[in-house]
């Protein structure tokens, strides 16, 4: 079995060596679960080990009596005909008694294929001595004690499988090997998709004997080639059941994610989280739950359920590891299904041309941002769905020159995602969209005063195309920003919050996230007016003509821990640092509630990092980048970072890193990147602590030798 030999051996070993009486084989629909288990079921060593075997396809409609009948029919030849034909005696206890009597003193393997929910009565009843149960499910059933996940094939395995299915064991002929690899890669490792594409390719190749090279080139290079469209349609029925089985609020989120361009990982950053929130997909979780746990946590949990329980997302939770593949996307097979289903129910339509039926669509998305600049598209929207469309989503690549988006004057718009579209200035039509909840775009001009017309706006994301600094000009948001009482996220890069008058009652108590501001936004007068802030990203530029001394520019930071009692995430970055600051940020900048801290470009001595750590008892994630601290040695004291789980050090002049005994007891990941002077890593640790992974990326060769001396029983290594 291509790519599944390891899983095959593990499952077989589990059964033969009696490691347990239940094993769940799970994975995405079409990944090969049933094929894997069938090969195990038919293996000669399994047939010898188990005197009796039974295979039952359960399906979504699980009936305990019917399952028992199917098992009895296979393990007892005397009752085979009766069990399959006579349904008059359906007494569960009687059927179970017959089964137990038949299985007495015999080893039996029961395969329950395609299970959708855990039947407690049935599974408890089958706790019979010498009976082992092997289940397959596209869901990760929580009640199952042990599970193996069948993963997608890698690039080489995908290429091998496609070649064998088209040309037999010999694989691709040399002149088609490169094209075959590209075609296999577009299947994204799903065996069902690879086999289906192979069947269609083989039939089509027979018709194109004279121009097979040209035909394969077209299949490999064209995104929406008919071979792939036909393959998507053929396997859609297999996939659709997983979508149907998910709860309604997750269906909507899944369809929404399926609208993104194929083969590209999504970034789980604030823009996506805000967009999902503005669309209303989180409302089923309740206002109180969102308030207590935050939008980010609720979104992450929903995505985790889609990925881990329903197997509907490609998802790699190792977000901070350099070696993580960063998977976070909907598989291209699922995307095809998502787009058809979303358009059918008028939930969302992905525009691909000027002449499409848009009647009643509620959300419109493009993968080429210029489509929204075409007058015919504007006319079509105005004709088909002017009152229903409430989201415009520009997911195409960034354009260096402004695109005149015509479709932004529809009064019912609630979401306008144009972050990848450059504007010279914010179009006046946008400032009339009074229903708008989410706005993101790229623009270098100042925020106009009339931005306050958007009273329902919750998420404001404006970044400049280029960061231009003018001497003597202080970049601020308009004072009217304080009138926007529904704001929750302010991500306006390079603009500080203005200071309201001292007698003003202005307060933004719904704001939980602010990014892009500088130290001038950290005065007491400003911070006390955003009391529920949880995430603060501060960015400053060290200008060559700065006239403020260090103590003056950093003094306001002391107010953070005093005024922001709910702050859990803090980032402070200095761009273009000169490493000559005489004054350090005050320790009172760091509230004890922080769980995430990222520092960049400060140039402070390493001892000060220990001082910071000593006031942060709840810190879980720490990022130290771009010479945030300088010096040849960092000696991590045993009293620091007792709850830290992730530590990333990038671009540093460290020569020696030493972790004292007892320090970093809960650390799971230490990732050291681009530290070219680092030679020694000393870490005293005992077996009672978590076994951490040490990553080394592009560092001094001497540190690799130093790390290899650490005991493998206490550390894992990646480089």
Number of helices: 22
Strand order of the largest sheet: 8-9-10-11-12-13-14-15-16-17-18-20-23-25-27-28
The Rg value, from CA coordinates, equals 30 Å
Helix content: 25-40%
Would you tell me the overall average pLDDT? 89
Unreliable spans are none
Please give the number of β-strands. Answer: 28
| General shape | globular
- Proportion of residues in extended strands: 15-25%
Amino- and carboxy-terminal Cα gap: 30 Å
Structural class: alpha/beta
Q: Mind describing the biggest β-sheet?
A: 16 strands, parallel
Structural commentary:
It is a single chain. The protein is an alpha/beta fold. 32% of the residues lie in helices and 18% in strands. It contains 22 helices and 28 strands. It has a 16-stranded parallel beta sheet, sandwiched between helices. Strands 2-3-4-1-5 form a five-stranded parallel beta sheet. α1 (5-16) crosses α2 (33-41), α8 packs across α10 and α12 (226-245) crosses α16. It starts with a helix and ends with a strand. The mean pLDDT is 89.
Helix and strand arrangement:
Elements: H1 5-16, E1 22-26, H2 33-41, H3 44-49, E2 52-59, H4 64-75, H5 80-85, H6 92-103, E3 108-115, H7 120-125, E4 131-137, E5 147-149, H8 155-167, H9 177-186, H10 191-207, H11 212-221, H12 226-245, H13 248-257, H14 270-278, H15 287-309, E6 314-315, E7 328-329, H16 332-344, E8 349-351, E9 363-366, H17 375-384, E10 391-394, E11 415-423, E12 438-443, E13 459-463, E14 489-492, E15 513-517, H18 524-527, E16 535-541, H19 550-554, H20 560-563, E17 569-575, E18 596-600, E19 604-605, H21 606-614, E20 621-625, E21 629-630, E22 633-636, E23 646-650, E24 656-659, E25 669-673, E26 680-683, E27 693-697, H22 701-708, E28 716-718
């Amino acid at each position: 079995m291509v790519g599944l030999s390891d899983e095959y051996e593990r499952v077989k070993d589990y059964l033969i060596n009696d490691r347990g009486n239940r094993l769940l084989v799970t994975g995405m629909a079409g990944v090969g679960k049933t094929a894997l288990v069938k090969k195990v079921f038919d293996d000669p060593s399994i047939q010898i080990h188990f005197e009796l075997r039974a295979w039952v396809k359960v399906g979504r409609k699980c009936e305990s009596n019917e399952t028992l009948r199917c098992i009895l029919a296979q393990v007892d030849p005397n009752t085979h005909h009766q069990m399959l034909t006579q349904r008059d005696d359906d007494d569960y206890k009687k059927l179970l008694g017959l089964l137990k009597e038949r299985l007495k003193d015999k080893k039996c393997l029961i395969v329950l294929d395609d299970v959708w929910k855990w039947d407690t009565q049935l599974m408890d009843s089958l706790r019979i001595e010498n009976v082992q149960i092997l289940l397959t499910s596209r869901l990760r059933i929580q009640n199952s004690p042990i599970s193996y996940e069948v993963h997608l094939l890698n690039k080489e395995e995908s290429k091998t499988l496609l070649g064998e299915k088209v040309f037999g064991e010999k694989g691709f002929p040399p002149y088609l090997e490169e094209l075959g690899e590209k075609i296999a890669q577009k299947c994204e490792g799903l065996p069902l998709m690879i086999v289906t594409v192979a069947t269609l390719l083989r039939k089509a190749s027979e018709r194109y004997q004279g121009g097979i090279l040209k035909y394969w080139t077209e299949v490999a290079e064209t995104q929406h080639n008919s071979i792939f469209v036909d393959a998507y349609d053929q396997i859609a029925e297999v996939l659709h059941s997983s979508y149907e089985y998910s709860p309604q609020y997750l269906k909507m989120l899944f369809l929404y994610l399926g609208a993104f361009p194929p083969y590209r990982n999504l970034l789980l950053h604030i823009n996506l989280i805000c967009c999902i929130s503005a669309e209303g997909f989180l409302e089923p979780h309740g206002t109180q739950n969102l308030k207590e746990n935050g939008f980010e946590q609720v979104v992450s949990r929903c995505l985790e359920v889609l990925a881990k329980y329903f197997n509907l997302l490609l998802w790699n939770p190792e977000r901070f590891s350099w070696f993580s593949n960063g998977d976070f996307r909907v598989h291209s097979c699922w995307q095809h299904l998502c787009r058809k289903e979303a358009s059918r129910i008028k939930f969302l339509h992905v525009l691909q041309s000027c002449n499409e039926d848009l009647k009643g669509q509620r959300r419109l998305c493009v993968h080429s941002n210029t489509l929204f600049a075409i007058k015919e598209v504007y006319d079509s929207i105005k004709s088909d769905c002017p009152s229903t469309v409430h989201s415009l989503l520009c997911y195409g690549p960034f354009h260096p020159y402004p695109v005149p988006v015509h479709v932004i004057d529809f009064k019912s718009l609630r979401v306008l995602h144009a972050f990848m579209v450059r504007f010279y200035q914010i179009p006046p039509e946008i400032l009339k969209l009074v229903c708008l909840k989410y706005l993101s775009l790229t623009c270098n001009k100042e925020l106009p005063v009339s931005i306050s017309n958007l009273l329902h706006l919750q998420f404001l994301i404006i970044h400049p195309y280029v960061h231009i600094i003018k001497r003597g000009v202080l970049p601020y948001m308009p004072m009217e920003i304080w009138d926007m009482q529904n704001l929750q996220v302010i991500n306006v890069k390079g603009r500080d919050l203005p200071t309201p008058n001292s007698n003003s009652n202005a307060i933004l108590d719904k704001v939980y996230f602010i990014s892009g501001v500088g130290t001038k936004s950290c005065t007491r007068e400003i911070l006390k007016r955003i009391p529920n802030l949880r995430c603060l990203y501060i960015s400053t530029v060290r200008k060559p003509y700065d006239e403020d001394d260090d103590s003056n520019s950093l003094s306001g930071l002391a107010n953070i821990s005093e005024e922001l009692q709910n702050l859990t995430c803090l980032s402070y970055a200095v761009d273009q640092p000169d490493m000559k600051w005489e004054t350090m940020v005050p320790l009172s900048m760091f509230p004890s509630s922080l769980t995430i801290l990222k520092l960049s470009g400060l140039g402070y001595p390493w001892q000060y990092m220990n001082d910071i750590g000593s006031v942060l008892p709840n810190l879980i994630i720490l990022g130290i980048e771009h010479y945030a601290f300088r010096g040849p040695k960092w000696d991590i004291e045993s009293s620091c970072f007792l709850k830290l789980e992730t530590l990333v050090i990038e671009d540093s002049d460290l020569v020696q890193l030493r972790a004292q005994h007892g320090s970093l007891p809960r650390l799971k990941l230490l990732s050291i990147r681009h530290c070219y002077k680092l030679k020694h890593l000393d870490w005293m640790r005992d077996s009672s602590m978590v076994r951490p992974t040490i990553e080394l990326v592009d560092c001094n060769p001497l540190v690799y030798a130093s790390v290899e001396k650490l005991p493998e029983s206490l550390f894992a290594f990646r480089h």
